[in-house]
Amino acid sequence: MSLGLMLVLEGMMPFLFPSTWRETLHKLAQFQDGQLRFLGLTLMLSGLLLIYWVK
């Protein structure tokens, strides 16, 4: 169920704003590995905090 919700949320941006989403992905592709890892870590910790807060 949570995977389905994640896919719905992930699909909203390319559906609603395809050109903005494409530009954002292009900018993300320019990041260094360390920057992407920091972004990934930040997103994971934010998700864990949200799950903890909801419980």
From TrEMBL:
Q: Which PANTHER family match?
A: INNER MEMBRANE PROTEIN, INNER MEMBRANE PROTEIN-RELATED
**Which residues span the membrane?**
34-54
Q: Which domain of life is it from?
A: Bacteria
Q: Which UniProt keywords apply?
A: Membrane, Transmembrane, Transmembrane helix
Q: Protein name, please?
A: DUF2065 domain-containing protein
Q: One Pfam family, short name please?
A: DUF2065
